[in-house]
Amino acid sequence: MKEIFIMNKRKLIFIVASLLILICGYYIFDYYTGNHIIIDDVFKESATKDVKEQSDDVQSSENFTVESFDWDGEWEISEDSAVYLSIKTSKEEIIIQFSEVSGSWEINQTEPNLMEANAIVNINSIDSGNGQRDSHIKGDRFLQAEPFPEATFQLHSIENWSNEWQSGQTNFILLTGDLTIKDITKTVTFETEVLSENDILKLKADTTVTFNDYGMNNPHTVLLDTENDVLITLQLVLNKNEM
């Protein structure tokens, strides 16, 4: 009886240990392959504010007028801005954030074809919520941050610009230009929403590229497949340069 008891005890220990290994393995897999980043929408505070203001101003809505907005001048990308990559895998969509973005937009309302804009993203500001994955993405196989620490965008043309835009309104435009990642440059078009709010501009924009466009292969492992498409999302806040 004692020997049977010892054998059963060993089996129980083995089963419990196996379950613990499986559970730990799952959580490790989930951590290293799962998503840990949420896109910070620069319009979200504006939407909340708009709802509150509309509620407060119901009685006086007939007297409400929207002022014209002075767009002309140089606008600089602020530190509240970020760029995101969204990549679909067989597990879920992974979001990668780059928190250091700089650049400017020279706006000319009457002659939009003369507008100039540029943006620079610090590749080393990458954050996917997993440091080991970040090192892998900015390493030799993918973004190669050591020889190419920056990705850049240079504006070439703008479509759907209107001189009748008003402060507090969301406007839809297309921004086309050169996107350079590593030493490869491709022409892309960002579908863009712009919101003017007091003395700041808020801009959201999306475009889709592929791993192959920039000399990379989309990752595949035994446990995880990754799509070739990469959605690039800009969430920018710009302040007017008064100098």
Automatic annotation (TrEMBL):
<keyword id="KW-1133">Transmembrane helix</keyword>
<keyword id="KW-0472">Membrane</keyword>
<feature type="domain" description="Lipid/polyisoprenoid-binding YceI-like">
    <location>
        <begin position="74"/>
        <end position="239"/>
    </location>
</feature>
<dbReference type="Pfam" id="PF04264">
    <property type="entry name" value="YceI"/>
</dbReference>
<protein>
    <submittedName>
        <fullName>YceI family protein</fullName>
    </submittedName>
</protein>
<feature type="transmembrane region" description="Helical">
    <location>
        <begin position="12"/>
        <end position="29"/>
    </location>
</feature>
<comment type="similarity">
    <text>Belongs to the UPF0312 family.</text>
</comment>
<dbReference type="InterPro" id="IPR036761">
    <property type="entry name" value="TTHA0802/YceI-like_sf"/>
</dbReference>
<dbReference type="InterPro" id="IPR007372">
    <property type="entry name" value="Lipid/polyisoprenoid-bd_YceI"/>
</dbReference>
<keyword id="KW-0812">Transmembrane</keyword>
